[in-house]
Write a structure and sequence with these properties.
alpha/beta, Nitrilase/N-carbamoyl-D-aminoacid amidohydrolase, 7 helices, 14 strands, hydrolase activity, C-N_Hydrolase, Nitrilases_CHs
Length: about 350
């Protein structure tokens, strides 16, 4: 296993509500990262085909057209989009983590907020469905199950991804800790609207949600507790995405106001002490590196070198799944059953 490798966090926007075009963009970013020697390439929450921001802003009765588009453009785990991404991972020799809105073949509109980790051989290592859609996400996605609560054993270490609010769930975070996780990916949407006037403290009398700060606190806490590296990968909300969302809105002025002023999430890395890592971006033409801690306002790829040997020393102090755990007091059981809507039994033949 390589103890040192370069990770790439893609702070990117989708081609909103287009599975085909967003998949093409995803593949182009994997190739770009691989050309810059990245071994692990990470994408945001529900990157393909979009994150349902509209459900936070307009009343559900006005969002039917969005739901229909999401159902149409969400992708199958065995569909052509995933096959293309898997093939790219194999061709480039990279491990890829990508967020998707997943649809299933037993329903015309059941969807899951899923994260897929693909090995450098193109095989799916972890297929995780978000345990519980958060707040307004319940209007789009169904609750997942524990099937994907596992780490990916790769030649670049043990890698795990949790989706957005799952990083606030202590038991969901403990599950990968108990499997020797060395790199923790947390994926996030570009914005998280909670008030009408996001940019001020006047939104319905409530303070604006500080997106980047909230995400950073959760990621840093997990990395410190587990003594692992953290990759925060957030989506980017570009003007084209805002225009596409507003073009379908019944309240386009409200939609634009909230999206334009909402607190932007950030993409960054943290080390096993919870401290930010100074990463770098690369000029696509000159190859020149610029060293920065976060990507927030502009689309791009943030790179950082991770040295897994750095995950060891802190375990002397607080190994929360070993020397600093009371296994005689606490006992976590995780059900990894993949849930299905029905189990069909074969009819037994009776008689000769």
């Amino acid at each position: 296993m390589a103890s040192r490798f370069l990770a790439a966090a893609c702070h990117v926007s989708p081609v909103l509500l287009s599975a085909t075009k967003t998949t093409e963009k995803c593949i182009s970013f994997i190739n770009q990262a691989a050309q810059n020697s990245a071994s692990l390439v990470v994408f945001p929450e529900s990157y393909i085909p979009a994150f349902p921001f509209w459900s936070a802003i307009q009343a559900p009765i006005r969002n039917h057209v969005y739901f229909e588009r999401m159902a149409k453009e969400s992708i199958y785990i065995d569909g052509e989009e995933m096959l293309a991404i898997r093939d790219t991972a194999k061709q480039t020799g990279t491990v890829v983590s990508v967020g998707i809105s997943e649809k299933v073949r037993y329903s015309t509109a059941t969807m899951f907020n899923s994260n897929i980790i693909i090995g450098s051989d193109g095989e799916i290592l972890v297929h995780h469905r978000k345990l519980m859609p958060t707040f307004f996400e319940k209007l789009t996605w169904s609750p997942g199950d524990g099937h994907g609560l596992r780490v990916a054993n790769t030649r670049f270490g043990k890698i795990r991804a949790l989706i957005c609010g799952e990083n606030t769930n202590p038991l969901a975070r403990y599950a990968p800790m108990a499997q020797g996780e060395q790199v923790h990916i947390s994926s996030w949407p570009a914005v998280w609207p909670t008030t009408i006037q996001q940019g001020t403290d006047q939104g319905m009398g409530r303070p604006a949600y500080r997106n980047a700060a909230a995400n950073q606190r959760r990621a840093a806490s997990h990395s410190f507790e587990n003594k692992c590296f953290g990759i925060l990968c957030a989506g980017h909300l570009d003007e084209a995405s805002i225009e596409a969302i507003c073009s379908l809105a019944e309240e386009p002025i409200l939609m634009r106001d909230v999206l334009a002023t909402a607190s932007r999430a950030a993409t960054s890395f943290v080390d096993p002490t919870g401290a930010k890592i100074v990463g770098h971006i690369m000029d696509p033409e000159s190859g020149e590196k610029t060293y920065i801690e976060i990507l927030q306002e502009k689309e791009g790829i943030l790179y950082a070198e991770l040295d897994l040997d750095k995950c060891v020393e802190g375990k002397q102090y607080h190994d929360v799944v070993g020397g600093y755990q009371r296994l005689d007091v606490f006992d976590l059981k995780v059900d990894r059953t993949r849930r299905k809507p029905a189990t069909f039994l074969k009819k037994l033949k009776v008689g000769p």
